[in-house]
């Protein structure tokens, strides 16, 4: 690691060593830029929270030898979606037979980020931990550096990768406070269990991983869901619920995972395990508004701070979007550097890169789905109807059960009709 002084002028300063900041740092340092990442956590990864699964596509594109070297716990080869009521569970499973299938993996985010930070350092980036950026500095109407730990650090450009609560971007007038309907609250635990027990209980092959999403009971039938991911010798389990619903329904967020773990289905998977980690964090729920508010003279915003998270209820993806937005910001800085100017206009290249990327395409596609998925009926009446229908069909008693009649009965028991169900199904299909 080379020595660094606060008098030094950097090509770029990055606030925060999450996936977005490290994506920018790795790429800029690879181009030979003099980059400083400032992270308030004592160690890289100590302040970052996520569920447990990372999609690998962007990392494979950017980092040579990624699949061999990265601290991957298990490649996900089983996807499960479970509908849950107070006692029962109905699971749909996709099991990929090909052992070579690699699309997403489970990981500890802290370990993963530490590995990523080493890769950025190998490229020449300087990472300063245990230091909080208190202020972004402006000179002649342009961002000129930051004030951190009492020192001034100057740079041509500052990349804001400070995560879901972008206080600094807000102070500069780039972002507004999140409203309760724009964020969800996520709570998770990591439970230690022996490797063989995990593989036996979750029906997994050696080192094979499962990603399981749950809807209904885990959120008390409110919009959101539960999740479970398998690491080598631990299981990550958690619940994400929209903040507006949590507030309105006085959901006991602090022990929501405990309640989820008490469900007979989950209890049988996790019994005997010990909790080794507990954390809670906000998750952005809606795209960020105007893209032209994500950059200004000498300033760019990436990752969660920009609202780049896809949370559809059955999938939660932020790490790959964060990393890629960091890479795009780095490409923008390189172009601005080549042109010799860091004006808002020069940095608007970031907007065009974003628009052409999967990030904005996916977020826009999800934008329509968002309204549909915010509907309580899906998580309550439909979950209970489908479970009720399948339970009735599998229960043998004196009654003869025809499919249609049994389905109508279950719908009626949950205040639905076949016509409303058909209409809702079409709406969901048209918007997802
Ligand atoms: C419960 C939960 C489950 C999730 N599950 C998944 C999942 O399974 N898969 C997935 O892909 N995504 C998941 N996500 C989303 C994902 O974790 C985030 O989208 C992603 O980690 C965001 O990365 P980031 O770099 O933008 O922000 P962060 O990881 O939050 O990094 C921001 C960094 O900036 C630092 N920082 C902040 N302010 C300052 C300051 N003033 N000075 C210095 N440093 C500062 C922080 O300490 C932090 O290290 C989940 C999120 C939650 C909450």
Keywords:
about 425 residues; alpha+beta; FAD/NAD(P)-binding domain; D-Amino Acid Oxidase, Chain A, domain 2; nine-stranded mixed beta sheet; eight-stranded mixed beta sheet; 16 helices; 19 strands; about 35% helix; globular; binds flavin-adenine dinucleotide
Write the layout of secondary structure elements.
Blueprint: E1 9-15, H1 19-30, E2 35-38, E3 53-55, H2 57-62, H3 66-69, E4 74-84, E5 89-95, E6 104-106, H4 109-123, E7 126-128, E8 133-139, E9 142-148, E10 151-160, H5 167-171, E11 183-192, H6 195-201, E12 208-216, E13 224-230, E14 234-242, H7 243-248, H8 256-262, H9 264-270, E15 274-284, E16 295-296, E17 299-301, E18 310-311, E19 316-317, H10 319-339, H11 344-347, H12 349-355, H13 358-373, H14 376-394, H15 403-413, H16 418-431
Parallel strand pairs: 1-2, 1-10, 2-7, 4-12, 10-17
Antiparallel strand pairs: 3-6, 4-5, 4-6, 8-9, 9-10, 11-14, 11-15, 12-13, 13-14, 16-17, 18-19
Helix pairs in contact: 1-4, 1-10, 10-12, 14-15
Bound molecules: flavin-adenine dinucleotide.
Flavin-adenine dinucleotide binds at residues 15-21, 38-41, 47-54, 132-133, 161-164, 168, 186, 188, 238, 240, 281, 283, 303-304, 309, 316-320, 322.
């Amino acid at each position: 690691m080379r020595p660094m002084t606060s008098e030094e002028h950097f090509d770029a300063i990055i606030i925060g060593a999450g996936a977005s900041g490290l994506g920018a740092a790795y790429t800029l340092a690879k181009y030979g830029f003099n980059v400083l990442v400032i992270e308030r956590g004592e160690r890289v990864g100590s302040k970052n929270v996520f569920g447990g699964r990372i999609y690998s596509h962007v990392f494979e594109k950017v980092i040579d030898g990624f699949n061999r070297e990265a601290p991957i716990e298990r490649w996900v080869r089983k996807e499960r979606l479970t509908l849950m009521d107070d006692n029962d569970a109905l699971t749909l499973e996709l099991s990929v037979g090909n052992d070579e299938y690699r699309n997403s993996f489970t990981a500890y985010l802290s370990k993963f980020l530490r590995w990523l930070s080493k890769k950025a350092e190998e490229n020449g980036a300087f990472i300063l931990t245990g230091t909080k950026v208190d202020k972004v500095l402006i000179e002649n109407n342009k961002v000129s550096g930051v004030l951190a730990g009492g020192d001034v650090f100057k740079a041509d450009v500052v990349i804001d990768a400070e995560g879901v609560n972008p206080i600094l971007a807000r102070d500069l007038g780039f972002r507004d406070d999140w409203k309760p309907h724009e964020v969800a609250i996520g709570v998770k635990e990591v439970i230690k269990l022996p490797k063989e027990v995990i593989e036996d209980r979750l029906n997994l092959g050696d080192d094979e991983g499962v990603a399981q999403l749950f809807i209904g009971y885990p959120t008390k039938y409110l919009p959101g869901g539960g999740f479970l991911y398998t690491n080598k010798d631990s299981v990550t389990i958690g619940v994400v619920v929209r903040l507006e619903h949590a507030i309105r329904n006085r959901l006991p967020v602090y022990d929501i995972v405990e309640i989820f773990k008490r469900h007979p289905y989950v209890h049988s998977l996790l019994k005997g395990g010990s909790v080794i980690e507990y954390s809670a964090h906000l998750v952005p729920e809606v795209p960020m508004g105007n893209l032209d508010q994500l950059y200004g003279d000498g300033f760019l915003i990436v990752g969660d701070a920009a609202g780049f998270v896809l949370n559809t209820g059955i999938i939660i993806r932020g790490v790959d979007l964060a990393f890629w937005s960091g890479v795009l910001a780095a490409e923008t800085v390189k172009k601005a550097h080549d042109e010799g100017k860091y004006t808002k206009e020069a940095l608007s290249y970031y907007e065009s890169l974003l628009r052409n990327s999967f990030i904005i395409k996916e977020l826009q596609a999800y934008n329509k789905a968002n309204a549909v998925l915010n509907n309580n009926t899906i998580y309550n009446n439909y979950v209970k109807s489908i479970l009720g229908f399948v339970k009735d069909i599998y229960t043998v008693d004196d009654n003869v059960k025809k499919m249609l009649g049994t389905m109508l009965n279950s719908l009626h028991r949950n205040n639905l009709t076949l016509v409303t169900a058909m209409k809702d199904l079409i709406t969901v299909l048209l918007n997802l």
